[in-house]
Design brief:
The chain contains nine helices and 23 strands. The chain has 355 residues and is an alpha/beta fold. Strands 5-2-1-9-20-19 form a six-stranded mixed beta sheet, with no helix packed on it. It has a four-stranded parallel beta sheet with strand order 13-12-11-17. Strands 6-7-8 form a three-stranded antiparallel beta sheet, with no helix packed on it. It is globular and about 60 Å long. The two termini are 28 Å apart. Belongs to the NADH dehydrogenase family. This is NAD(P)/FAD-dependent oxidoreductase. InterPro entries: FAD/NAD-bd_sf, FAD/NAD-binding_dom, NADH-Q_oxidoreductase. It is an enzyme of class 1 (oxidoreductase).
C-alpha cells in the first residue's frame, strides 16, 4: 500500500483530501494527514477570533472520514527526503511514498529586537486564542498597538473596534497609505473608516525595537497595554530548514508540476511554495487542484500534464467589522456593505461544502 503523506490540514491539504476522497483514491493508496489540531482551521477568520466577535467553534471544520485516511496528531520536527520519512516530536517516524508539504507560514519579525518575545500573533489558532485572552482582558481605556496595516492588521483593528469600543487602538504602517497592495481608492476608504471610528493610523512607521508593553517607532517609545504583530509572514521553520532552492522570500522553488526539482515525490502547497501570486487561501486551493491532477497521472502511470492554465483568482475581500467591507474583484473596487455580505457568503459556502 502506497502512503501519501500530507503535512498540514490547511486550505491546500484540505482541498487535496476533498478531491481524492471518497472515490478518486486508487485502491493501493492510503493517505496519512499530519496536523497539530484535530480539525481544519479557517485561518482567514483568526482576526475575528482574536477580537472576540466569533467563537472558536465557528472557525473549525472537521476533516473528512475515510477507511484509508489516517490522521496523526503531532508536531513535525523534520522532513527527511532521502530516507522518505517524517519525524515527529511525539511519534515514531512516518514513511511516505509521496509527500505534500502544506505547513503554512509564521510571522516574520524583520530582525526587530524583542518583536518575537513581546508581541501577540494571529498566525495560528493557538496564538489567536492567546491574543483573544489578552485583548479581551484589557481594562477600559487600554491601548492596543497593531504593527502592520495589510489585510490582517486592518481586519483585526476594525473588528477589535466593534468588539471593544473603549480601547485606544493604534495601527502602525510603513507606507504612506495602509493596504499598500490595494488601489488607493480602497486605502482611502479604509483610512476614512478608521478616522470615523477612532482608530489612530501612524503612517511612515519604522518599528525599531519592542519591549514589554513598549513599541519603539523611529526609536521613540510608545507605551501600550498589548502589541499585536501583523507585519509580514515567512514559511514555516521546517520548510526554511529544508536544503532546497528558495526564492528571496524563503519560499520553495518548484517545477511546473509543483514538486521539488530533485525530488519528484515531494510537493509543496500554499504559503511555502514560490508562486506568481501573494499567498492566500484560494491560491493554495487552486494549486492543490493541480497537484491532485499530477498525482492521479502518476498513480495511473500516465504522462504528466504538459501545461496548466494560469491560476484564476477571484479577488480579495476584507471586512470592516460586521457591516462594512472592501474588496477587489475582477479588477473592480468594492466598498461598503456589498463586499462584507460577499465575504460572509463565501465563508458560509466554504463551511457548507467542506464541513
Amino acid at each position: 500500500m502506497k502512503n501519501l503523506v500530507i503535512l498540514g490540514g490547511g486550505y491546500g491539504g484540505m482541498r487535496v483530501l476533498l478531491r481524492l476522497l471518497p472515490n478518486q483514491l486508487p485502491d493501493d493508496v492510503q493517505i496519512t494527514l499530519i496536523d497539530k489540531n484535530p480539525y481544519h482551521c479557517l485561518k482567514t477568520e483568526y482576526y475575528a477570533l482574536a477580537a472576540g466577535t466569533i467563537s472558536d467553534h465557528h472557525i473549525r471544520v472537521s476533516f473528512p472520514e475515510h477507511p484509508r485516511l489516517h490522521v496523526q496528531y503531532g508536531e513535525v520536527t523534520s522532513v527527511e527526503m532521502e530516507s522518505k520519512q517524517i519525524l515527529l516530536s511525539n511519534h515514531d517516524p512516518i514513511a511516505f511514498d509521496d509527500l505534500i508539504i502544506g505547513l503554512g507560514c509564521e510571522d516574520k519579525y524583520h530582525n526587530v529586537p524583542g518583536a518575537d518575545q513581546f508581541t501577540f500573533s494571529i498566525q495560528t489558532i493557538d496564538q489567536s486564542r492567546d491574543t483573544y485572552q489578552k485583548l479581551n482582558n484589557l481594562s477600559a481605556g487600554a491601548t492596543v498597538a497593531i504593527v502592520g496595516a495589510g489585510l490582517s492588521g486592518v481586519e483585526l483593528a476594525s473588528e477589535l473596534r466593534e468588539s471593544r469600543k473603549d480601547l485606544n487602538i493604534k495601527i502602525f504602517d510603513r507606507g504612506k497609505h495602509i493596504l499598500s497592495s490595494f488601489p488607493v481608492r480602497l486605502s482611502n476608504y479604509v483610512e476614512n473608516w478608521f478616522e470615523e471610528h477612532g482608530v489612530t493610523i501612524i503612517n511612515g512607521a519604522n518599528i525599531t525595537k519592542v519591549e514589554p508593553n513598549v513599541v519603539y517607532n523611529h526609536d521613540e517609545p510608545i507605551e501600550c497595554d498589548a502589541i499585536v504583530w501583523t507585519a509580514g509572514i515567512q514559511p514555516n521553520k521546517i520548510v526554511r530548514n529544508l536544503p532546497v532552492e528558495k526564492d528571496p522570500q524563503g519560499r520553495v522553488i518548484l517545477t511546473m508540476h509543483h514538486h521539488l526539482p530533485e525530488h519528484e515525490d515531494v510537493y509543496v502547497v500554499g504559503d511555502c511554495a514560490s508562486l506568481p501570486h501573494a499567498p492566500s487561501a484560494q491560491l493554495a486551493e487552486a494549486q492543490a487542484e493541480q497537484i491532485v491532477q499530477v498525482l492521479q497521472k502518476k498513480w495511473n502511470n500516465e504522462p504528466y500534464p504538459e501545461s496548466f492554465p494560469p491560476f484564476k483568482l477571484k479577488g480579495v475581500l476584507g471586512s470592516l467589522g460586521k457591516k462594512e467591507g472592501f474588496g477587489l474583484v475582477a479588477d473592480r473596487t468594492l466598498t461598503g456593505r456589498v463586499p462584507r455580505l460577499l465575504k460572509s457568503g463565501v465563508l458560509w459556502m466554504y463551511k457548507y461544502h467542506n464541513g
